[in-house]
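Model: Ready when you are.
Researcher: Fold this.
Model:
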Amino acid sequence: MRILNVTETYAPFLEFGGPPVKVRALSEGLGRRGHQVTVLTADWGLEKKMQTEEGKIAAERSPFGWRREKNGVQAIYLPTWMRYRTVSWNPAVKRYCRARLQNFDAVHIFGLYDLLGPAVAAACRARKLAYVIEPIGMFVPIVRSLWLKRMYHLICGRRLLQGASAVIATSEQEIEELLTGGVPRAKIVLRRNGVEAHESWPERGSFRRAQGISNDEKLVLFLGRLSAKKSPELLLRAFAELSGQFTGKPLRLVFAGPDEGGVKTQLEQLASQLGVRTRVQFTGPIFGEAKWAAYRDADVFVLPSQNENFGNTAAEAIAAGTPVIVTEQCGIAPLLANAAGLVVPHDAKALSEAIAQVLGEAEVHARLAAGCAKVTLQLGWGEPVRDMEALYARVAARQAEKQDSRRLV
């Protein structure tokens, strides 16, 4: 099949978190299965990346922007004329659709609250081409610019979803959110996310050495965007409460990830107020070997989100063999509960008690660490890729039947 994946962010722009990692894994997985996959995305500074990472990134000019071929996937980076946070304006999308859209059998749009998806969806509807949409946890407005997100749904989001042949959810939690929002159950398809286990693990201790953290310290790791949605403040308060209990045992909390809207400064101020500033460390965004080294060196990984459609970072930590703690609001929670980690309410006291249990009870830590390998076997990308392959085939077949019936009429 000829498949078009549409996403606001794609590799090598991994600083945008889980979406570009997910789209890359699905696209390359489908490419390995013999499909022709194209990713249509925004250019967030590819030329600059090519200059700063000389030899690592190669691309060429195309009629629509930069074109990059990697691991069997062609990516088109449309020129960005304006941007606001993670939203871009890419006028070339309409020209691309006029010239290329008819060449595809299936279109998959990832995410909401951007301008690329609605433009491609409108072109699909005009050409009677089926498309599927994956909200990637954005359907329910949670934090930041709530009125803008509501306006988005009124202007184009509702039509975007109504016109889709299928809406993909990655957890039972996300299904409930979609149902509550009025999406018909018959249109919703459940497909979990996966995790790409690292091919060769970094040497243990390398992250600690790079960050000046001794091997005697118990390391609590948060890795992801420092955004209100992911509740790093909740983790900091839980850590402060925990620090008073672990007398004689040095603890360290590491926040690894890009700042969003000045959250880092707020956390630094709160850490000082709580008297734990010297035990809290910020590394900024980390990728590749450094990211996997952080997972490997952590004693526990914590994802305290107030809403998370899946939780890719928790899956990555499990793949690295590190026990995790997630809130009940994380879609991955049922897959790991009491097997590779603990699941707690979105509450500082409950979170603090769970961290104390994992760090303070050796048998609990050992049991959860041993369970990581078993859970990882259930989290590979093979099954999700096959699920998408089957869904695209069904959607394309239904669309062909509709077109045939119109011709007969």
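Researcher: Now this one.
Model:
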Amino acid sequence: MAEVILKKVNKKFGKVHVTKDVDLNIQSGDFVVFVGPSGCGKSTLLRLIAGLEDITSGELLIEGEVCNDLPPPERGIGMVFQSYALYPHMTVYDNMAFGLQLAKTAPKTVDEKVREVAAALQLDPLLERKPKELSGGQRQRVAIGRAIVREPKVFLFDEPLSNLDASLRVQMRMEIARLHDRLGATMIYVTHDQVEAMTLATKIVVLDAGRVEQVGSPLELYNHPANTFVAGFIGSPKMNFLTADIVEVGEFTTQVQIHRGQEISVAANSIGASVGDPCVVGIRPEHIRFGEKDAIQEGGVELSVVEQLGNECLMYFNTPQSADPVVIRIEGQTTIRAGDKRCIEFPEDYCHLFDRDGKAFKRSVVGETTPLLVVTP
């Protein structure tokens, strides 16, 4: 296990500034996930830690040692790539043993480590096969095993599940989580899939355009997003955003009026704002409720699309107050159909409030559980 610290780390490719003043403290034993949209710089940041790219400015410390100029083999890093990167002419055994053999490890020790790791990853029956004889999930396990046998200080995963089908992704996600629990190692994982981030991470780093937008535990980011970017990225379906104006500024509750709609209360501290200031109200699809009085317009909203998924139902409606269709998520099934009108309510404890620049006001009350919605057709 090792602590990884990044201090004002920047990376430029010519005039293109890819990674911008990144400050991170990854504690020993953490499972940290870098998440963000394509092109946000998450894979570049991982490659900087691995030593596969040079740091333009700033410092990288692993176990207290500055590693900016250390070559990759001397950093104590074990990396698992998206493409597996296995040697096609070698058996599973030889692929896993190769790194140790290059380091001139005693043959007996190599054999013991390879077989121990193979047993842990359920690769024992496959040791004599070559990569072309393996499934995608098996190849990924070999790539992970190859990293484990070297006993690195830090494990790096670069979108390791993106080439797998849906069922294998779930299975491998569980195996990686169990691996972290068993080894207690420091792991850094890159993905664009926020479900992987939420289920695997002890700490999530949300990146956008090379900058760190927020760092925190999965539930901290879900309950306390720092801005509209994080709020919209964490959670599936994403948070709904509606334009509004501040009507009354309170220490614990703020009264806002959704444009051309009703006044609603939001459990947020908007100190620093003024009456009449534009703002954005955010609410997650699973927190919208059906009620007697509509929060947006008199008589309720008309549902344009209803998606029955069996275990849950997604409903959509359009409104001028939102650039995208507003999504309502309910558990179970319903007889509601597209074209029906329903009144919706925004519970104040589950609303988020953002200023005109997208920065979140501090929430006064946080719902710790997702309420179950009872739908009356």
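Researcher: Key takeaway?
Model: Confidence is low (pLDDT under 50) at residues 366-377.
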